[in-house]
Structure formats: structure tokens, C-alpha cells
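Design job #97: recover the sequence.
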């Protein structure tokens, strides 16, 4: 820690950081307290500088995109949140390869590829997240997942050092990756796709979207599928068979449309969701001997009452 580091941090606080920024506006579940500092990142150099300074000054960091898989404490995050959004969302294509920055939404990425007659990303069109988050956790749907199309990722380590991670080095598994294990920040990725036809790809995406509308509670804020799929089973089916559809704690509810979703009925807090999660886990374990593991990333979880 040096005087220069402190001066550089102070300059960012004055010029680029937003203080006490409410994180509920960045999460799809619409809960979460304030971040001590928020950076809406513009470029890689800015992200690396902020990460490096925060590490040297002992300030915790959290990187987020669309906030579609996050449950953040009502107390907020006492550190720096780096938001990769619309200012970090460039895409390009050469032949059958697409490059994109982490802030690109998966929906925009899927349509960008389809418009260029490139197949392989239709599964991602309805996932309410960004490329960064999708690559970080190996997001998937309808039999597809990001590991099937990614060739390499541009990352930063927690100190802000740049590195390239190949798909084999990413150690992808079900909703898991090396990036999660090591706290790497995904800046972007290259994907290798296959030839396709725009009209067919658009039709497939329409069918996937209709399936989601029919089966998922898309009219309520949520973090998507709340629990991971147990081996050989489905979390939503276990929750429904336990008779938990409609179970409510405060403003948080097990969706009556799809039991795998915990929804915000209007004024839910993160504490409501944590208490509901604990009840669901307990009841499912008691009835089926299965402990459901959250798929949602919980930041600064506090004990449920």
C-alpha cells in the first residue's frame, strides 16, 4: 500500500466511482443493498487498474454483469462492485468465429450470430444474463451450454493481470469453471460456431422463448433457476413433490408456475429469499434425502432466522 495507490483510488472515487449505489437496480431478483463503490466499466485498462488498486488496498471486489444469478445481502457489499454492462459490450465476427466482450447479453449474442447465419447459440437467447456471467458459470439451456462453443476466454486474475484461458483450461463442468474456483474476471470470449440459416435459427429461438413463457414465471423478478439440478433428478420436481409450490416468506415465494424458481412478488428482501431457501432445502431433504445446492450465487449470506 503506497501513497500513490491511495491517491489513485481517491481520483477514481472523485471521477469514476459511484458511492453507496443500490445494487437492487442491477439484479434481476430486485434485492440487494448498496455497494460502497460502483464502477460502470468502460474498458479493460480501467477494470485492471481498479482491481489492482482494490487488492493492494485490501478492498473486496465483486464483478457483475446483468445480475441474473446473484443474491446480494440487504446490507449491500462493503467494497467495490465493477459492473460490466453496455459500455463493455462490443461484438465482432470473422468467418465462423464470434468475439464478444463480457457485457454483451446472451440474447444479443445469439441474435448477432443468427443474423450472420451462424448456429450454436440459439439455446442462449432466453438466458437472462451476460456473456461474462454465462462463461463464468457455464450457463446452459435446452441441451446447450457455453462450454460447447467457447474456444478461449480473455480474463483478469484478482490482481488485474491479464491471461488467456482456453476452453480446456477453463475446466468446465455443470455450472462450474476454473474461473469460479480462482476468482478470475471474464473480460470476453471467442466462440466457434457452425454454418446455419438465419430463418431456421430465428424459428428455433422463437420456439425456445415460447417454451420459457409457458413454463417459467417470467412476469416476476427472479434469479432464474434457484437450485442446481441434483444428479439424475430435477430440483423443481422435488420441490413440487414436497408440496412447496406457493410457499411464501415475506415477499419471496416458490413459484406456483415452476417450483424451481423463487420469485419476488413485490417487496421481497434478500433475507426473505434466504429464509425461503432454507425452508425448501430442509423440507426436500426431510422427504427425499437430497440437499439442494443453490445455483444462484449468494454474496455475503447472513444466517437465516
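Job complete. Output follows.
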Amino acid at each position: 500500500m503506497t501513497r500513490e495507490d491511495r491517491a489513485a483510488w481517491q481520483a477514481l472515487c472523485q471521477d469514476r466511482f459511484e458511492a453507496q449505489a443500490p445494487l437492487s437496480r442491477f439484479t434481476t431478483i430486485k434485492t440487494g443493498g448498496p455497494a460502497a463503490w460502483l464502477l460502470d466499466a468502460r474498458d479493460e485498462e480501467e477494470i485492471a487498474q481498479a482491481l489492482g488498486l482494490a487488492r493492494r488496498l485490501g478492498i473486496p471486489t465483486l464483478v457483475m454483469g446483468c445480475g441474473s444469478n446473484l443474491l446480494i445481502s440487504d446490507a449491500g457489499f462493503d467494497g467495490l462492485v465493477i459492473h460490466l454492462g453496455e459500455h463493455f459490450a462490443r461484438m465482432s465476427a470473422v468467418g465462423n468465429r464470434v468475439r464478444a466482450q463480457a457485457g454483451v447479453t446472451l440474447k444479443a449474442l445469439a441474435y448477432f450470430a443468427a443474423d450472420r447465419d451462424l448456429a450454436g447459440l440459439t439455446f442462449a437467447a432466453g438466458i437472462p444474463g451476460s456473456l461474462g456471467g454465462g462463461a463464468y458459470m457455464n450457463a446452459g439451456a435446452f441441451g446447450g451450454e457455453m462450454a460447447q462453443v467457447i474456444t478461449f476466454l480473455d480474463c483478469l486474475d484478482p490482481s488485474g493481470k491479464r491471461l488467456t484461458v482456453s476452453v480446456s483450461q477453463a475446466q468446465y463442468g455443470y455450472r462450474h469453471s476454473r474461473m469460479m474456483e480462482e476468482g478470475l474476471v471474464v473480460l470476453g470470449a471467442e466462440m466457434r460456431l457452425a454454418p446455419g440459416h438465419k430463418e431456421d435459427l430465428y424459428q428455433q429461438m422463437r420456439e425456445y422463448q415460447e417454451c420459457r413463457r409457458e413454463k417459467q414465471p417470467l412476469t416476476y423478478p427472479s434469479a432464474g433457476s434457484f437450485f442446481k439440478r441434483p444428479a439424475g433428478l430435477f430440483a423443481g420436481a422435488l420441490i413440487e413433490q414436497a408440496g412447496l409450490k406457493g410457499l411464501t416468506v415475506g415477499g419471496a415465494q416458490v413459484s406456483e408456475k415452476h417450483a424451481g424458481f423463487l420469485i419476488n412478488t413485490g417487496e421481497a428482501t434478500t433475507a426473505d429469499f434466504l429464509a425461503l431457501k432454507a425452508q425448501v432445502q430442509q423440507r426436500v431433504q426431510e422427504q427425499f434425502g437430497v440437499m439442494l445446492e443453490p445455483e444462484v450465487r449468494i454474496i455475503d449470506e447472513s444466517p437465516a432466522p
